[in-house]
Design goal:
83 residues; 57% helix; globular
């Protein structure tokens, strides 16, 4: 999956969890939770939704690595593989 498609999927999932989020306002390198003001339960729901929709395992130990949109894209691309 190319980076732009993956980014759009991530943002679509984020908006499904937090409809007030405006995807075009998200800065890729800034802390995602801080930008969209998600509490811990919404953040967990977001990560679970990523897992379910993209079919990628995200171990709890990796949650701390997923800070920015850029982090999420790199992490998921590495696990989705080419294509």
């Amino acid at each position: 999956m190319d980076e732009q498609t993956l980014k759009q999927k991530i943002l679509d999932i984020l908006v499904s969890i937090a409809p007030e989020v405006e995807p075009d306002q998200i800065r890729p390198t800034r802390t995602l939770r801080g930008q969209v003001d998600l509490d811990s339960m919404d953040w967990l729901n977001f990560l679970v939704a990523l897992h379910e929709q993209l079919k990628v395992e995200i171990p709890e130990a990796d949650y701390q690595k997923l800070v920015s949109l850029e982090d999420l894209i790199r992490y998921l691309q590495a696990r989705l593989g080419p294509g």
